[in-house]
Amino acid sequence: MEPLLGLSVAPLTPADAAQLGLRSGTQGLLVRAVDPAGPAAAAGIRDGDVIEQVDQQPVRSVSDIRAALQRSGAKPALVLVNRRGTEIFVAVRPKT
Length: 96
What we know:
The chain is α+β, with helices and mostly antiparallel strands. The protein is built from 3 helices and 6 strands, in the order βαβαββαββ. Strands 1, 2, 3, 4, 5 and 6 form a 6-stranded antiparallel sheet that branches. Strand 5 and strand 6 form a beta hairpin.
């Protein structure tokens, strides 16, 4: 579980993307679990969402997420989420 956001992610595979109905070439991190009391849940992120960017930086690993969160500092991070082909931006305030 990624402690700053309260979620567990895994790299998005082509099989995952196809199962979720995402277009070919979609990249990011597949949300596997969300802590119901964590910041990601408060922002509306759900199991099965794909995190494509954090603060306009593409993410492919947990270390990518952490690096983007460090750059954002104390302010909320802007997260691009792909939910079954629909992309939405959500603001997530990481735990301090």
